[in-house]
Amino acid sequence: MNKNLNELLAQRNLPPLKSREEMLDILCREEYGFLPPEPTELKFTVEEKCIPNFCAGNAVANRVTAHCVINGKEFSFPFIAVIPTKEGKHPFFIHINFRPDVPDRYMPTEELVDNGFAVLSLYYNDITSDGGDFTNGLAGVLFENGKRGAEDAGKIAMWAWAAQRVMDYAQTLPCLDLDCAVVCGHSRLGKTALFTAATDTRFKFAYSNDSGCSGDALARGTTGETVEQIVDRFPFWFCENYKKYVKNESAMPYDQHYLLASIAPRFVCVGSASKDWWADPVSQFMTCVAASPAFENGFVCDDRLPQVDDKYFDGNIGYQMREGLHYFSRKDWNRLIEFVNKHR
Ligand code: GCU
Fold this sequence. Notes:
By secondary structure, the chain is α/β, with parallel strands linked by helices.
């Protein structure tokens, strides 16, 4: 690592990296809450070919329902599994999705299939609402009267838990390449994708698009969204403990580099957008720099702050900056495909 970036990193005053176990324990206790327990029973029902003639016959789209028993109560949720019809084992994305539709303008399904990938898409509101009500969906089976303890799961941890159940389903399909499982998402769901992979080693790759504050951007020294701003509007994404760090980032026993580092020795790629000042591309980039030592093949980049169209894909941590605002574009997906193909 070069001098310039090392100096910039020193200014952030970050706590040193620890073992994966210690970092995950801190992240759960202080920020996201602990994952809900694994279901004691889990089965899947499948409605085959729920979209007729999908992808001109190059893939089938099946609607799957996961039926879980958790805390002695039943909870189920649907997702869509798009599987290429071509012979062989397919690498696959688990996409934690803002929208229920497949295909969708935010998930170029046919192009993903054309590139040889299967895609399993879960709609986050099918798990539990994106709001402060903890009595519905998965939250409703976890907590009596919607009351949580200080370290109990926030909504991000619940969506991550569901992505892990989709991975349980993927493991039942012989046509998927389990050595090439990618979890991805945009923004709040990019934060979720990182937490999913950090806590579950079955994912070989994680990709977070524009996730920013409480995701891939360092809190210390950010010029974008702060802990205070995110906790003010979205306290329910996190555990109750996270409130302690409002206007008090320097007291955090960690920073977001722990999240990326917990994915080591696997692969993680950060996607940023040049005009997304709220997510703060520079702080996203510095997270990669700070997490790098946790990986055997760390972050390989130039000795300067990132610029539009920089793509650093050589190490186990990747970073790319796309021109433009806050969205998950085809360009982002294509760069994700490029990163995965380079390392699988
Ligand atoms: C808000 C929030 C961000 C979040 C984004 C999103 O802008 O402040 O932290 O990433 O919503 O999920 O779209």
